[in-house]
From TrEMBL, chain A:
Biological process annotations from GO: 'de novo' IMP biosynthetic process
Keyword Ligase: yes
Protein name per Swiss-Prot or TrEMBL: Unannotated protein
Gene Ontology MF: a single term: ATP binding
The organism's taxonomic lineage, starting at the top: unclassified sequences, metagenomes, ecological metagenomes
From TrEMBL, chain B:
Signal peptide per UniProt: none
GO molecular function, one term: ATP binding
Record-linked NCBIfam families: FGAM_synth_I, PRK03619.1
Coiled coil: none
GO terms classed as biological process: 'de novo' IMP biosynthetic process
Keyword vocabulary terms for this entry: ATP-binding, Cytoplasm, Glutamine amidotransferase, Hydrolase, Ligase, Nucleotide-binding, Purine biosynthesis
One Pfam family per UniProt: GATase_5
SUPFAM superfamilies (UniProt xref): Class I glutamine amidotransferase-like
Stated name of the protein: Unannotated protein
Length: 743, 222
């Protein structure tokens, strides 16, 4: 193919261009011509097509996501909000914490190991780009039915990929989720979250400022991998015979990323960059246009200077390549030599490929010929915006009008069978088979990790300051009522860090949905965003950033609406955290919160094939009182243990608690069936020493929260009324599921 | 007492090892793989990680790092050297210790709290323990299965050079449940599990790993 330059484009306005094959609609192509006043060159077409893809431009979601800004609560903690690579919050003592979650769903179905691995790699670079040292990762994962043959291909590969990459980077994996549902068959969800820490003064932004400053590319060489991968893959629905648009998934090299992290942190420490951006989806197209757009707009890049792994790549391919482990920095000329020295120390390839200019155009040349000349904002930030039609799908009224009708255990035998069934259900069973493949110890600061309610890491060894984070989604609830579902997921994530004694501070989200071109799916999305924005406003928690993943569907079957919500909080002294379970006998167990007959969307209903009824209504005022109660109790040091109740209700909660330190419990319940199986939100089980009851009573009264005595700890069984289940039997039920399914 | 902690490209547990050294009461000195300089340290730790990405074979490239020539020379003269996990693999590749670490028998990376039994307390790194002590420290690796030929195994066992064994089910297929070994002189020790991740109850399963880092002080005082 001959080189297509700007001057050729001007002289050949009628050349046919493959815009449709690149995923652009005719009106989008027309708009590019209007912006440029001519047809785009093939390189410009490549850039616009990847940057205007759903994945990079958020063109279908933007109109809804702006609610996170419009409804943003006042927050003193927010240092960097939505729009940068990741949000940054103030956690005190001069520390800033950055965290974000992203999806890598489609590549992980095509090639589970590399898809998951590069998902971790990408989010870690986003965090690094903010100037932070990455300190932990988490991975909420969703799969097709646990016993489906393809799940046995996808799950082990994804888990090995998450571990293979994260372990090699030296990042502790401190939690996540693993959920199975048939709608995820063919559309597994791989969401990856990373947390980083820095001092306030070290925050870096993606902007190319200062004419004459250099554009420096460093890290891995550029190859042909993942060309159009993220952008095209993430924007096309998988369907029968739809294999033509499944190009190679990116291949990760965690060793190179580890070196890149250390090299970058050394560069940051010496204050050698003006702005920085990682190369992720849409590669150089994204990095150059976003950096230029973040600055005054002018930038010149000599594309032929980009170091190549495959010298046969065309300029269009170099612009679209999604080769991993690359960063792009803006460096003042006088600091370049020191920058190069540090790269040399770490054996990192580094090349100055261009400079910031006074103008407002991004100009890219190839051997001296101009192949790109565009206003960068039109590429990076002013892409198409769609106000896609959305209507409440017909199933909503149908499922909401029905009532869950499943067997409710009552006799001792029935209770025993139900508790053991839930303990071993794939969604609730022990996940050690997975988490033992992740390094949770590296860096020596992990305070909590799976199976605790939240992950917690220490960020200062002297003051013991720490952060906790939890990710949650209840897709069954979101399916029945996406508005309430999003609010409930937010409340659950916040509760999960408050049980340990951490105060919720800020929110990130990864919104996984089917095709936005389906008005019903679009309604689920719109309702979820509305619910989350309303919830965040009410709870006073700002959304710091996030990610949208559409087109998670096979044929006409979309995944359950799955908004994964991450809440980050701060704890002043990690040594005082409240553990999720009790390690001694003779404690009293109490339930905080109210239990209703909430079986709609519950695990018990799911196990009986029922996804009907009405999602509980989120009462966030009550949730916030419960959080304050948990924090006050933590400060007063009255809790020996606190554990959130969610999927699987009290049955799952007690199972997890008694098995954690092998201390049994004896509880009595009035309505044993509903008491064990209901998933009413806003509930926590706490263990206290008997002499702490007075303080607890004062607190529950102060925060208007229902307090119910459940029983006591001790023994080697879980005793529920007259039903006795030995811890050995319970442990076998809980721990044998994953090894049986996945070997 | 100054203990060097070597950082290779891809080393991960260097800061953890340095923290453990400090907790044990010594001064940690950072050593860089490319420097032919041991900075006058009294002992050296090769920490865990994936040096050079563990491409080719774990530890196979690190043994050629400039700093390793000095470590090998010093070890042969009696300087205490502890290799943890990837460091153990480097010591085997450097022939300071016999045998090799191969992929775990179930082919998965495995991270878990592992009970081990101290078999020898006469090495530079194990004097704080009693023989028969059972301690729980993290095990985390993909290639932790200790293998060697029968003659070497008989020699290790016969000379009391197995310093720690896994308790209970074999986690990775290591011969004779071997978790760690020493050289004949007892100054060079390789250990697959991670004592540096068990120096306090807050961040580890126990504080029992600290014994390795206090042992070295005893060795020096003598």
């Amino acid at each position: 193919m001959s080189l297509d330059t700007v001057s050729i484009a001007k002289n050949t306005p009628d050349n046919k261009q493959p815009f449709a094959e690149l995923g652009l609609k005719p009106d989008e192509y027309a708009r590019i011509k209007e912006i440029l006043g001519r047809r785009p060159t093939s390189s410009e077409l490549a850039m616009y097509s990847v940057m205007w893809s759903e994945h990079c431009s958020y063109k279908s979601s933007k109109v809804h996501l702006k609610q996170f800004g419009e409804k943003a609560p006042h927050s003193d903690a927010l240092l960097v909000g939505i729009g940068e690579n990741a949000g940054v919050v103030d956690v005190g003592q001069g520390y800033a914490v950055t965290f974000k979650i992203e999806s890598h769903n489609h590549p992980s179905f095509v090639e589970p190991y590399q898809g998951a691995a590069t998902g971790v790699g990408g989010i870690v670079r986003d965090i690094l780009t903010m100037g932070a040292r990455p300190i932990a990762v988490m991975d909420p994962l969703r799969f097709g039915p646990a016993d489906a043959p393809d799940t046995r291909r996808v799950l082990p590969g994804i888990v090995a990929g998450v571990g293979g990459y994260g372990n090699c980077l030296g990042l502790p994996n401190i939690g996540g989720e693993i959920v199975f549902d048939e709608t995820y068959a063919g559309n597994p969800l791989v969401n990856a979250l990373c947390i980083g820490v820095m001092k306030h003064s070290d925050i870096k932004l993606a902007k190319a400022a200062g004419a004459g400053n250099l554009v420096v590319l460093f890290g891995a060489k550029t190859g042909g991998d993942g060309i159009g991968g993220v952008s095209v893959l993430a924007s096309e629905t998988f369907g029968a015979g739809g294999s033509t648009k499944r190009p190679s998934v990116q291949v990760g090299d965690p060793f190179v990323e580890k070196i890149l992290i250390e090299c970058s942190l050394e560069i940051f420490a010496e204050d050698l960059v003006v702005g920085i951006q990682d190369l992720g989806g849409a590669g150089l197209s994204c990095a150059t246009s976003e950096l230029a757009s973040g600055g005054s707009g002018g930038m010149k890049v000599a594309l032929d200077r980009v170091p190549l792994r495959d010298p046969s790549l065309s300029p269009e391919e170099i612009l679209m390549s999604e080769s991993q482990e690359r960063m792009c920095a803006i460096v003042e000329p006088e600091k370049l030599s020191r920058f190069l020295e540090i790269c040399k120390k770490w054996d990192v390839t580094v090349t100055a490929i261009g400079e910031v200019t006074d103008g407002d155009r991004l100009e890219i040349t190839w051997n001296g010929e101009v192949i790109v000349d565009v206003p960068p904002r039109t590429v990076a930030h002013e892409g198409p915006v769609y106000n896609r039609p959305f209507t409440q799908p017909a199933y909503i009224d149908l499922v909401n009008s029905q009532k869950v009708n499943v067997m409710i255990p009552n006799t001792s035998e029935e209770v025993r069978a139900a508790v053991l069934k839930l303990a071993g259900a794939p969604n609730l069973a022990d996940k050690s088979w997975v988490t033992s493949q992740y390094d949770k110890y590296v860096q020596g600061n992990t305070i909590q990790s799976q199976p605790d309610d939240s992950g917690m890491v220490r960020i200062d060894e002297k003051t013991h300051l720490g952060v906790a984070i939890s990710t949650d989604a209840n897709a069954n609830w979101s399916y029945l009522n996406p508005y309430e579902g999003a609010k409930l997921a937010l409340a659950e994530a916040a509760r999960n860090i408050a049980t340990a004694g951490a105060r919720p501070l800020a929110v990130t989200n990864c919104l996984n949905f089917g095709s936005p071109e389906d008005p019903g799916v679009m309604w689920q999305f719109a309702e979820s965003v509305r619910g989350l924005a309303d919830g965040c406003l009410e709870m006073g928690l700002p959304v710091t950033g996030g990610n949208v993943s559409f087109y998670n569907q096979t044929g006409s079957v979309a995944i359950l609406p799955t908004p994964v919500i991450g809440v980050l909080g701060v704890i002043q002294d990690v040594r005082t955290r409240t553990p999720m379970s009790f390690s001694s006998a003779g404690l009293d167990l109490y339930l905080l919160g109210d239990t209703f007959a909430d079986l709609a969307g519950s695990e018990w209903a799911f196990l009986h094939g029922e996804r009907i009824g009405q999602t509980p209504t989120a009462d966030l005022a009550r949730e916030m009182r419960l959080i304050e109660l948990l924090l006050a109790g933590h400060s007063a040091k009255i809790f020996s243990a606190a554990h959130d109740l969610s999927q699987g209700g009290l049955s799952a909660g007690l199972t997890e608690m008694v098995l954690r330190y092998s201390i049994g419990a004896t509880v009595s319940l009035n309505e044993v069936g509903i008491g064990l199986l209901s998933e009413s939100p806003g509930r926590v089980v706490v263990a206290i020493e008997p002499n702490k009851l007075e303080i607890l009573t004062q607190l529950t009264s102060k925060y208007s929260t229902t307090l119910t005595k459940l029983g006591t700890t001790g023994g080697d069984s879980l005793v529920i009324n007259d039903c006795v289940i030995s811890l050995d039997d319970l442990r076998i039920a809980h721990t044998s599921t994953f090894p049986r399914l996945f070997g | 007492m100054r203990i060097g902690v070597i950082t290779f490209p891809g080393t991960l547990d260097d800061r953890d090892a340095a923290r453990a050294v400090t907790h044990g009461g010594a001064e940690a000195v950072a050593l860089w793989h490319a420097d032919a300089d041991l900075k006058g340290v009294d002992a050296v730790i090769l920490p865990g990680g994936f040096s050079y990405g563990d491409y080719l074979r774990c530890g196979a490239i690190s043994r050629f790092a400039p700093v390793m020539n000095l470590v090998i020379e010093a070890a042969e003269k009696g300087m205490p050297v502890l290799g943890i996990c990837n460091g153990f693999q480097v010591l085997c590749e450097s022939h300071l210790l016999p045998g090799a670490l191969t992929r775990n028998s179930d082919l998965h990376f495995l991270c878990r709290d592992q009970e081990i039994e101290i078999i020898s307390n006469t090495t530079a790194w194990t004097t704080s323990f009693n023989v028969g002590d059972k301690i729980t420290i993290p095990l985390k690796n993909g290639e932790g299965s200790f293998q060697c030929d029968n003659k070497t195994l008989a020699q290790l066992e016969g000379e009391g050079r197995v310093i720690a064994r896994y308790v209970g089910e074999n986690p990775n297929g290591s011969r004779n449940l071997i978790a760690g070994i020493s050289n004949a002189r007892g100054n060079v020790v390789g250990l697959m599990p991670h004592p540096e991740h068990a120096i306090d109850r807050l961040t580890g399963p126990s504080a029992q790993g600290l014994g390795f880092f206090t042992s070295i002080l005893n060795a020096m005082v003598k």
